[in-house]
Structure formats: structure tokens, C-alpha cells
Amino acid sequence: MSLLLRRPLGHEAYPGDVFYLHSRLLERAAKSSSRLGEGTMTALPIVETQSRDVSVYIPTNVISITDGQIFLSADLFNAGIRPAINQGISVSRVGSAAQIKAMKQVA
């Protein structure tokens, strides 16, 4: 990929600035309001892995930038479980901050 982009090689032959490129792309999803002094950001980056390996460079790069991940499983889908969300490895960094008081008590 680096050779096609005519950039120096980085990790796993990806461009050395791929982390910067991912974060710049995700920042484009932001909408800020200078009048209100705040903003929001919503992005749904989708990464397809090879052999279900989320520990390789691109998935870990995107995981490190995002606030949570939903992992879908072909095995669950083929077993008729829909949505095919793998709850074991799906995470949220927002956690209890997004839950109402009653939900926190149950959890």
C-alpha cells in the first residue's frame, strides 16, 4: 500500500502516517458549534478483519481512536442469531456514564 501511495513504509507495509490518516478521517465526522462552544462527533468506521484477528495493525489502530467497538460474528449470523454481535469482545469506553440510574443498579 505504501508503494502505491509513494510513501515510506511503516508497520506491516502500511504508510507510516496511517494512524494520522485514520484520525483525520474520523475528525471529519465532527460538527462543532462555535456559538455554543461545543460539538458532537458521530462516526461508524467499519473494519473487516482477516481470519477474525482484531490484533493486527489496522483494527487496533481504529480501536485505539474510537470510544467503543461492536464486533459482528459470521458464526453467530450463520447460527441464526441476529444481530450477530459478539458480546464477549464488544466494548464501550462510555460504560456506565451512558446508563440511567435504574440500569446502573441492575448491573
UniProtKB/TrEMBL annotation:
Keywords: ATP synthesis, ATP-binding, CF(1), Hydrogen ion transport, Ion transport, Membrane, Nucleotide-binding, Transport. Residues 1-92 form the ATPase F1/V1/A1 complex alpha/beta subunit nucleotide-binding domain. It is found in: Membrane. Its main location: membrane. GO terms for cellular component: mitochondrion; proton-transporting ATP synthase complex. InterPro entries: ATP_synth_F1_asu (IPR005294), ATPase_a/bsu_AS (IPR020003), ATPase_F1/V1/A1_a/bsu_nucl-bd (IPR000194), P-loop_NTPase (IPR027417). It comes from the Eukaryota. Pfam families: ATP-synt_ab (PF00006). GO terms for molecular function: ADP binding; ATP binding; proton-transporting ATP synthase activity, rotational mechanism. Belongs to the ATPase alpha/beta chains family. This is ATPase F1/V1/A1 complex alpha/beta subunit nucleotide-binding domain-containing protein.
